[in-house]
Amino acid sequence: MKSKLIIIVISFSFLLIGCTESNQNLVNNPEDALKTIEVGNDEREINVYGSHKVNEELVLIVFRGAMNDKDIWVAEVRKEDGQWVAKEIVQMNGPFEDSEDIQTVIISDEFGYEVGYIKSEVPVAGDLNIFEVEGISDWKIWIKQSK
Question: Which of 56, 71, 86, 113 lies most in the core, judged by the most C-beta atoms within 10 Å?
């Protein structure tokens, strides 16, 4: 009887350890999904400048720090099987030379959003969600719902 109890306690301990390790790998919020973009980013400092919730299963995040400290990115983070996963990232290091005051970079008909640049001195339309990035004063990133 005593040996059976010990075996049950040990088995239960292994079960708890396994569940704890499994829960540590869960990604329960969109910002944590950014750390999974590239292997080895667990320790990298990621600066999030803002996010835009497209719907319950999709969030766009403007951030810096995934590959280095300089590049700026917009990540499409989707909820799949109850976990957030960074699916697509687009580098957003500034508008093209000689571009208009407002420039569209991404159009997603599938998910109903657009992303682009706007020069800082341009008045902002009410349907644009604006993100200022630290250290950049002449342009900003915008996101807008298109559906």
Answer: 86
Contact status, residue 86 vs residue 36, Cβ threshold 8 Å: yes
Q: Identify whether the C-beta of residue 72 lies closer than 8 Å to the C-beta of residue 50.
A: no
- Please tell me whether residue 131 adopts helix, strand or coil conformation: strand
Which residues does residue 117 pair with via DSSP β-bridges, in sequence order? 103, 141
Q: What is the pLDDT of residues 37-73, one digit of tens each?
A: 765 555 668 899 999 999 999 999 999 987 778 899 9
Q: Tell me if 53 sits within 8 A of 79, measured CB to CB.
A: no
The most distant pair of C-alpha atoms in the chain lies apart, rounded to whole Å, by: 82
Amino acid 24 reads: Q
Q: What's the pTM value of the predicted model, to 2 decimals?
A: 0.78
Q: Which two three-digit tokens encode residue 62?
A: 């403007």
